[in-house]
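Tokens for chain A. Residues wanted.
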């Protein structure tokens, strides 16, 4: 075992990468030590997410150790490999968090890192991930997930009524979404079923991106309109179809 609890017999570490993250005129150094290649990295201040694109070269025991300053990220960490959460060993020094991960399989992967504390401030709940959509479409960077995030941040949360709605919605959504997301990863048929169910909803939500919402009344009006449209698609139309079929039978 090394100082951070990683079994050194697992790895033949040969790559040490250092990256500078510049945020609000502050510089943070990220250190990444691996036994595989790192092709690129990005940092999204909007999503508060550090992302690495990697090329794993081992069938077994691809190992990485990431050192992140506490002033950048702190609190509880979430590590995603191609959109799926993986376990990680996390140790903290007085200045940094040391994240140790091990995964199997050759190929190209995307490694995402987020935390509950960013630049010394607790991350607001409404900035949380779209768990079901991420599990359905495979990654937080998928186009559909980004669409939902942009709609939330750039449209809904720009009005007081939207903020109130998201606060109530998040309480409801996060009470069941982790269970559904986990089951999607375990059952491919269930995942495809959720995909089919989400597609009409995503299509209806795109309507909000093509209208100008400049007031609370407009937000409420368009929001209620989208809700009624989805009630029609998911409940009224199927009920009408069932009744029609029964009458003919």
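Reply:
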């Amino acid at each position: 075992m090394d100082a951070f609890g990683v079994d050194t017999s697992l790895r033949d570490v040969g790559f040490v990468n250092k990256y500078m993250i510049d945020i609000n005129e502050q510089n943070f150094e990220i250190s990444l030590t691996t036994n595989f290649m790192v092709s690129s990295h990005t940092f999204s201040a909007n999503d508060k997410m550090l992302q690495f694109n990697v090329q794993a070269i081992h069938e077994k025991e691809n190992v990485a150790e990431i050192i992140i300053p506490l002033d950048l990220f702190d609190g509880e960490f979430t590590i995603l490999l191609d959109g799926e959460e993986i376990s990680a060993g996390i140790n903290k020094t007085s200045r940094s968090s040391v994240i140790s991960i091990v995964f199997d399989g050759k190929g190209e992967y995307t490694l995402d890192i987020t935390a509950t504390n960013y630049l010394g401030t607790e991350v607001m709940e409404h900035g949380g991930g779209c768990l079901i959509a991420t599990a359905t479409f495979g990654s937080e960077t998928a186009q559909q997930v980004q669409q939902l995030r942009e709609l939330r941040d750039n449209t809904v949360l720009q009005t007081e009524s939207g903020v109130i709605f998201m606060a109530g919605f998040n309480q409801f959504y996060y009470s069941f979404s982790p269970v559904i997301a986990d089951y999607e990863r375990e059952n491919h048929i269930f995942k495809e079923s959720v995909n089919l169910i989400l597609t009409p909803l995503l299509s209806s939500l795109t309507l909000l991106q093509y209208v100008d919402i400049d007031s609370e009344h407009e937000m409420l009006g368009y929001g209620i309109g989208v809700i009624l449209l989805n009630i029609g698609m998911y409940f009224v139309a199927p009920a009408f179809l069932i009744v029609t079929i029964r009458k003919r039978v």
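The first strand starts at residue 15 and ends at 23. Confidence is low (pLDDT under 50) at residues 1-11.
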